[in-house]
Amino acid sequence: MTGIPLTHILFLSTALFFIGAYGLFTRRNMITMLMSVELMLNSVNINFVAFNKYLYPDKLGGVFFSIFIITIAAAEAAVAIAIIINLYRSHHSIDVEDASEMKY
Q1: Residue-wise over 92-101: b if at least 16 C-beta within 10 A, else e?
Q2: pLDDT band, very low/low/confident/very high, at 94 (cuts 50, 70, 90)
Q3: pTM (2 decimals)?
Q4: For 2, 10, 34, 100, which has the most beta carbons within 10 A of its beta carbon?
């Protein structure tokens, strides 16, 4: 089988996941944290497609899981952005530190 070796794809996926985890744990901006979660979900999608291609090349199970994850991620992003906009309108900040001190 020719093409990119599985180890290269897994290295890329691992790097994307840890970049997303770093961004999630070190950033205070809610939009940046949301982007980090999306980056982590995309790294999982790369894993699903890569293992599907190398383990079961004639089946599409990994691709279907990836499409499902993309759909759920789009819904999650829409809801999260709506919540962030609502928080910004009421408190004029999207900083996580400010959000923890909010009183309703």
Answers
A1: eebeeeeeee
A2: confident
A3: 0.83
A4: 34
- Token pair of 51 as six digits: 């293992």
3-state secondary structure 53-100: HHHCCCCCHHHHHHHHHHHHHHHHHHHHHHHHHHHHHHHCCCEHHHHH
Task: Specify whether the CB–CB gap between 103 and 86 falls below 8 A.
Answer: no
d(CA 42, CA 35): 10
* Cβ-Cβ contacts under 8 Å for 5 (sequence gap 6 or more): none
User: Mind listing the pLDDT tens digit for each residue in 4-58?
Assistant: 999 999 999 999 999 999 999 998 888 999 999 999 999 999 999 999 999 998 9
Q: Which of these, 5, 3, 2, 12, lies nearest to 47 by C-alpha position?
A: 12
Q: Can you tell me which residue has the tokens 């939009």?
A: 31
Identify which of 94, 96, 97 has the alpha carbon closest to the alpha carbon of residue 86: 94
